[in-house]
Design brief:
Length: 258
């Protein structure tokens, strides 16, 4: 595979476009092939086996198209499938997990109170349990599944301010936000809600996501293999989706340009 080959990026639907935007900013020469599996979204309420099968199908397709690396722009698919995918394919596979470490490190040794917002499946999986285990003695960690936030993006309702704020209040009013240090956006769909979270949360609460870290990780991996795109190459994005409808294609484009 040459360094000018594309990077395959996938998600259960439209959320991974938030990761694509970060990669575009940080690695502008890369060509990105994006696949959103909106016909099968959400992944977060499926079984790990179902998510694993869907992920394998997508990566198999990417490999046939000659990608030089894959980014799983989905915390849920990463927790269910990254290990098996890495065992099966010999191209680099970059996964995502809720940025709990970033949130806890913000305290520089002080106990932090952190809410991790993610899908039900991410929060149930062994991968997250292992991550939580590393930090739960030194910090207070709350797990908050937010499946409706995925649906709102997929239905194109992200601009419905009342609906979004109502939904956020439903999930977060139960917390003592004045004594919360950060909220981790542990699902790539949730990154599109950053401004809404800012409106909901007191100023003392940081909003943390894993997108920058993922783009950096991709850069480090490609660089170590000598596979970073040549600087004279014009980067770009091709958006594909398992939902053949016009509406989803338009939504995807809007989110990319948002
Ligand atoms: N965007 C996905 C994630 O980062 C999953 C959303 C879903 O399909 O439930 O976890």
């Amino acid at each position: 595979m040459t360094s000018s080959a594309p990077v395959g990026v996938f998600d259960s639907g439209l959320g991974g476009i938030s990761v694509v935007r970060q990669i575009r900013t940080d690695l502008p020469h890369e060509r990105i092939l994006y696949f959103g599996d909106s016909a099968n979204a959400p992944y977060g309420t499926k079984t790990p086996e179902q998510v694993r099968d869907l992920s394998f199908r997508i990566v198999e397709d990417f490999v046939e198209q000659g990608v030089k690396a894959v980014v799983i722009a989905c915390n849920t698919a990463t927790s269910s499938a990254v290990q098996e995918l890495r065992e099966h394919y010999d191209i680099p596979i970059i996964g995502m997990e809720p940025a709990l470490k970033v949130a806890c490190d913000r305290g520089h040794g002080e106990r932090q109170s952190v809410i991790v917002a993610a899908t039900p499946l991410t929060l149930r999986e062994r991968k997250f349990a292992a991550l939580m285990h590393r930090f739960e003695d030194a910090h207070t960690i709350h797990k908050q599944p937010c499946p409706r936030l995925v649906e709102i993006v997929e239905r194109g309702e992200l601009d419905d301010h009342d609906l979004v704020m109502r939904t956020l209040h439903d999930y977060f009013d139960q917390y003592d936000l004045a004594h919360t240090d950060s909220v981790v956006l542990g699902c790539t769909h949730f990154v599109f809600y950053r401004d809404y979270f800012r409106e909901l949360l007191p100023n003392n609460v940081a909003i943390v996501d894993g997108n920058e870290g993922t783009a950096r990780h991709l850069e480090v991996v490609l660089e170590s293999l000598g596979k970073l795109a040549p600087e004279e190459q014009d980067g770009g994005v091709i958006l594909r989706n398992s939902d053949p409808g016009e509406r989803i294609a338009e939504l995807a484009q809007q989110l990319l340009e948002r």
